[in-house]
Design brief:
Helix content is 36%, strand content 19%. By secondary structure, the protein is of the alpha/beta class. The protein has one domain: Alpha-Beta Barrel (TIM Barrel). The protein has an eight-stranded parallel barrel, surrounded by six helices. Strand 10, helix 8 and strand 11 form a beta-alpha-beta unit. The longest helix has 18 residues. The site of ligand PBG has 10 residues, from helix 6.
């Protein structure tokens, strides 16, 4: 490994100039590395701010034009849609997830009509935006049922595929759902719909602001420890990924991001498949608050995002994806 020694070798030499630093850079970030999450809200002409997420808004469908035009112009490859569902539409089994006129379905149709294949659309497969208890599946006696939940997730997947969703992203953490969803998609001739499995999703405190954004925070009873992963574990993450690849996942997600760089790296090294990182809402808000209060400089955002690339992520889901003009050098 070591190819010389001081004074013949001076590693500072190539750091001397901006141009030579650029030439020896091992990693780079560009718009193509990012997926932009967009929160949706009912109604018309709405752009609502979200208290716990600085500079992130919810958009009514008719107001999606601006943010999508900018994303396409800036060469963002894909958006991820998340609905803020009104409480009166929520119930124990999240049946609004199967309504072809729910917010996500309407948004997919609007975007596909207007923009065709100029930008990809990714949608979560999970019930938490639609359940009265805020869990990702059907709750019975305080426990989220696995197999019964999958039956609904299959239909949610199929519906979103029918609407024109390009990438289905099961974020529910039920066992066995990737295989079952893949099978139904193939049977119904959606062979080219991609599956991005949130294979490694930890039960995390960093999701707080997101739950506020989609309105599942007040609803959530208890925590998600009986189905999301325990953050003391890393071998288990590799088992999750192995299973999902076998079941037909095209890409896998590791989530949250920054506290789990070790996992991103080991998944990438072991499986050599596309690995996406999710810089989640809590990471975003912590960092943004520190920058806004001038506790740290704005360059910290670039540094933070680069760590995902260094760890081996192919792409990053980030609430900074529509703010890259101010972040990338
Ligand atoms: C729901 C889902 C969550 C996030 C994405 N999809 C929250 C959760 O599991 O409670 C979190 C994203 C973020 O915090 O930015 N299945």
């Amino acid at each position: 490994m070591i190819t010389g020694k001081y004074p013949n070798l001076r590693l500072r030499r190539s750091r001397r100039y901006n141009w030579s630093r650029r030439l020896i850079a091992e990693n780079n970030l560009s718009a193509s590395d990012f997926i932009l999450p967009i929160f949706l809200t009912e109604g018309k002409n709405k752009i609502q701010s979200i208290k716990s997420m600085p500079n992130v808004n919810r958009y009514s469908i008719n107001n999606l034009g601006g943010i999508l035009d900018r994303a396409i112009k800036n060469k963002i490859p894909m958006v991820a849609l998340f609905p803020h569902t009104s409480t009166k539409l929520k119930n124990n089994i999240g049946s609004e997830s199967l309504n072809e006129n729910n917010l996500v379905c309407k948004a997919i149709r609007y975007i596909k009509n207007r923009y065709k294949d100029k930008i990809g659309i990714m949608c979560d497969v999970a019930l938490d935006p639609y359940t009265s208890h805020g869990h990702d599946g059907i709750l019975k006696s305080g426990y989220v049922l696995n197999d019964e939940t999958i039956e609904i997730l299959i239909n949610q997947s199929l519906l979103q595929a029918q609407m024109g969703c390009d990438v289905l992203a099961p974020s529910d953490m039920m066992d066995g759902r990737i295989g079952k969803i893949r099978k139904v998609l193939d049977k119904k001739n959606f062979k080219n719909v991609q599956l991005l499995s949130y294979a490694v999703k930890y039960s995390s405190s960093f999701y707080g602001p997101f739950r506020d954004a989609v309105g599942s925070k007040i609803a959530l009873k208890g925590n998600k420890k009986t189905y999301q992963m325990d953050f003391r574990n890393s071998d288990e993450a590799l088992r999750e990924v192995a299973l999902d690849i076998k079941e037909g996942a095209d890409m896998v997600m590791v989530k949250p991001g920054l506290p789990y760089l070790d996992i991103i790296k080991s998944v990438k090294e072991k499986f050599k498949i596309p690995v996406f990182a999710y810089q989640v809402s809590g990471e975003y808000s912590m960092l943004s608050n520190a920058v806004n209060k001038k506790i740290i400089g704005k360059e910290a955002i670039y540094e933070n995002l680069m760590s995902f690339k260094r760890a081996g992520a192919n792409a990053i889901v980030s609430y900074y994806a529509d703010k890259l003009n101010e972040i990338l050098p």
